[in-house]
Amino acid sequence: MFKKGRKTKFRLISGLTLVMMFVFAFAMQASQKEGAKTDVLFQDGLITVTGKVTDNAGAPLPGVNVYNKADNMQGTITDFDGNFTLQLDDPNATLVFSFMGFETQEVEVGGRTSINVTLQEETTLLPMGKKKRR
Asked: How far is CA 114 from its chain centroid?
């Protein structure tokens, strides 16, 4: 009789666990659907700009800062392949592309949704001084 009670208890706990898992999965799915609807409503009036940043040789540049010149809070960085995606509230915004060792470049969006940029390497001449002997 003791073993029969344990089996019943185990089945009851297993059943409740299974039910809880289904309830949790349903709740997660419902919250994701609500979040997606909210995001779509929030995106009204926004323009999504995508593109790729490369160097002179055509190699992708990961980690390039890309941001809206008028609003520094609207920005991102390029991924490992030099790609970026940015949502802007002004279709005529100016994007700033900056990366260490390369010249900063500004590009007007002008309503475009795809912008590819080639950054030029900085060419800064360092002053050469004479060393005095003592």
From this structure: 16
CA atoms within 13 A on the CB side of 2: 0
d(CA 116, CA 105): 12
- Let me know: does 52 contact 116? Beta carbons within 8 Å: yes
pTM for the complete prediction?
0.60
Three-state secondary-structure class, residue 49: strand
pLDDT in tens, 6-39: 667 666 666 666 656 555 555 555 554 444 433 3
Condensed to tens digits (0 to 9), the pLDDT of residues 67-94 reads: 999 887 889 999 999 999 999 988 899 9
Contact 78, 119 (CB under 8 A): no
Identify whether residues 55 and 111 lie together within a single domain.
yes
Euclidean distance between CA atoms 29 and 35, whole angstroms: 10
Domain co-membership, 54 together with 111: yes
Q: What CATH number should be reported for the domain holding residue 80?
A: 2.60.40.4130
